[in-house]
Design goal:
It is built from 8 helices and 6 strands; from the N terminus they run βαβαβαβαβαβααα. The protein has a 6-stranded parallel beta sheet with strand order 3-2-1-4-5-6, sandwiched between helices. The two termini are 15 Å apart. 40% of the residues are buried.
Length: 200
């Protein structure tokens, strides 16, 4: 009874475009992951899911935004999986939040998480999210309401969820809009301040 949980807040994104849009960004659909390239972020599972999607949806393109110790290993994995030409590794980008708005789907494949701001940033931008059902993520997005949740470490389930949204863009747009509304109501800066004031 002495504990109150106050979620993270997100400020709505500005309309500032990315400083340098990635090659092929106008191609659709565009799926991305924004994460430090380390084991718990499970970007390898994202690449395996990308290979699964590409087999039946070859027009899809994939962005990996972020850098880290697994960079070279993940580049090699993309080539090994046959998706090297469909995946663009952008490295660390200071304009990552602007890049999110270019995406049709944001993927958060992490094996472990707290309450990641990247999920809220995508929601605020109206971008549907597919994420592992770990940590505080299910408190941010609800399955089939603001996004899709999948088991962690399951690239087949992740790939199937991606295909579900890529093959039904109207459904993806509904999830994205629901996420934007939830970000505005549940995860706005004003809501966070009001909850903190209520505790005091």
């Amino acid at each position: 009874e002495r504990i109150t949980v106050i979620p993270n807040a997100v400020i709505p994104p500005r309309d500032t475009p990315p400083s340098t849009p990635p090659d092929g960004w106008r191609e659709r659909p565009l799926v991305g992951v924004v994460a430090r390239l380390q084991p718990e972020k499970a970007v390898a599972e994202f690449l395996k899911a990308a290979a699964r999607v590409s087999a039946s949806f070859p027009e899809a393109r994939f962005l990996v935004v972020g850098d880290g110790p697994l960079h070279d290993e993940l580049l090699g994995l993309a080539e090994h999986l046959g998706v090297g030409e469909r995946v663009c590794f952008l490295g660390h980008r200071a304009d990552a939040r602007a890049l999110i708005r270019l995406l049709d789907v944001l993927v958060v494949p992490s094996l472990t998480e707290g309450a990641p701001l990247i999920v809220l940033e995508a929601m605020a931008a109206g971008v549907p999210v597919i994420a592992s059902a770990v940590g505080g993520i299910p408190d941010q997005i609800r399955h089939e309401k603001e996004g899709l949740l999948v088991p962690a470490g399951d690239p087949a389930a992740l790939g199937d969820a991606l295909l579900e949204l890529l093959q039904d863009p109207a459904h993806a747009r509904r999830l994205g809009e629901a996420g934007r509304q939830r970000a505005d109501s549940e995860f706005s800066h004003a809501t966070m301040v009001r909850r903190i004031e209520a505790v005091y």
